[in-house]
């Protein structure tokens, strides 16, 4: 059921919302459903030009919650349609930042090794 909610919310945001505040790339990172399936916590990661743009995008999505909810209700075949609750997911961004730091450290290490190798090769032999 969580997968269906995730796909329906993603589809609604991507294809059915025409809000100019939605800018950048929006990713539904995960959906957590309560055991009674009446509530769905939807975690969203927004990649935009800057933090202000990302906040506007999240606010626009949150503002369109009832419309997204109606798309979800049309999509699922269930007695109840879960009430959507949107949250920003910073874990995904932090993971990407960690990978960037690892890549940077790796590049710096390789550059240092190349510099050391070049310095050793340039030493005169006696």
Describe this structure in words.
The structure is a single chain. With 126 residues, the protein is α+β, with helices and mostly antiparallel strands. It has 2 domains: 2-88, 2-Layer Sandwich (GMP Synthetase, Chain A, domain 3), CATH 3.30.300.20; 90-126. It is 57% helix and 19% strand. It has a 3-stranded mixed β-sheet, with helices on both faces. A hairpin with a 5-residue loop joins strand 1 (25-33) and strand 2 (39-47). Helix 1 crosses helix 3. The longest helix is centred in the last third of the chain and has 33 residues, at 90-122. The N and C termini lie far apart (75 Å).
How would you summarize what this structure contains?
57% of the residues lie in helices and 19% in strands.
